[in-house]
Amino acid sequence: MKILAIESSCDETAAAVVEDGRKVLSSVISSQISIHTKFGGVVPEIASRKHIENINPVIRQALSDANLTLDEVDAIAVTYGPGLVGALLVGVAEAKAIAYATNKPLIGVHHIEGHISANYIENQDLEPPFICLVVSGGHTHLVVVKDYGEYEILGKTRDDAAGEAFDKVARAVGLGYPGGPKVDAMAKEGNPHAIEFPRGAVSGSPYDFSFSGLKSAVLNYLNQCEMKGEEVNRADVCASFQASVVDSLVSRAFAALDDFGYKKLAIAGGVASNSAIRSAFISECEKKGVEFYYPSPILCTDNAAMIGSAAYYDYKNGITHGLDLNAVPNLKL
Ligand code: KG4
Ligand code: ZN
């Protein structure tokens, strides 16, 4: 089954053709990062307009790269939430129009389910059940993937998402947007033990995350340096901040693996491409005999191939949508 998938929930306009949930026939991503960079973050209104401009060329390119015509795909999938409502609407309207015009099934996909499913693409042997840590710009979720399309959320962030914390710290140290990859690169030059930043915890909720205290600690540290006239070692700040995030993520994920007796762990979302996070999980999993799965960086950040994968399993579970499908900005998993 070949699915044409569309993703437009934030600042990437993406389309892909995916066969049977695991084989990517094409994947096209048009990033708007250079446009939003000058505003220091994603401007929703601009994102929607750019999606409108980009979506048809991106879909045409995805079909052409897969050597297929629209008639030759079997279903149309689209992210319908969560995300920016105006951005989501562009993809949803496009997918509905194509499904209507070609009389093919329409499958609305949850964006987080897409991130989790990116793991199926590169790990052909991965089957549920497993635990997945989803860390992106908008979400930090610790999830038990009980079966295809069946999720139990063990914990989530009580305040900032992990990616949001990376972006805010990057801005504070003057690295610009998007901050995650820049902090990752700068941290490589720094000492992760140089500054003792807090490891956020939520009392009584062992699987929940909190990153706002860490972000404030970084801002306070920078303010104090400025007041004292001390020069800031930005690499040490990045490395020490990143070490705190790594500890928070690793400790929650392994608590869940131990408590629920799982031996398989996957990570997903833009922050999952962070080099320190990946290597910490690789070495912990090796030590503890846990199988570890992670997508390549291009499948961690927003893309449509992951939506095509999730849609295949949704379809097999009997999920299709009517032409009344709407964008749901705060869609629950
Ligand atoms: O999954 P994604 O593309 O979009 C959302 O669904 O939110 O994630 C984007 C987030 C941004 O906050 C970005 O700074 C972060 O992922 N990110 C990273 C890295 N690459 C992207 N964070 C840390 N290290 C990275 N290498
Ligand atoms: Zn995402």
Descriptive account of the structure:
The chain has 333 residues and is α/β, with parallel strands linked by helices. The chain has 2 domains: 2-116 and 300-316, Nucleotidyltransferase, domain 5, CATH 3.30.420; 127-297, 2-Layer Sandwich (Nucleotidyltransferase, domain 5), CATH 3.30.420.40. 45% of the residues lie in helices and 19% in strands. The chain has 11 helices and 10 strands. The protein has helices at 33-37, 44-65, 85-102, 111-122, 162-172, 179-187, 212-228, 234-260, 275-288, 297-300, 305-316, and strands at residues 2-7, 12-19, 23-31, 75-81, 106-110, 130-135, 140-147, 150-156, 264-268, 291-293. Strands 3-2-1-4-5 form a 5-stranded mixed beta sheet, with helices on both faces. The chain has a 5-stranded mixed beta sheet with strand order 8-7-6-9-10, with helices on both faces. Strand 7 (140-147) and strand 8 form a beta hairpin. The longest helix is centred in the C-terminal third of the chain and has 27 residues, at 234-260. The chain starts with a strand and ends in a 17-residue tail after the last helix. Zinc ion is lined by residues 111, 115, 136, 269, 302.
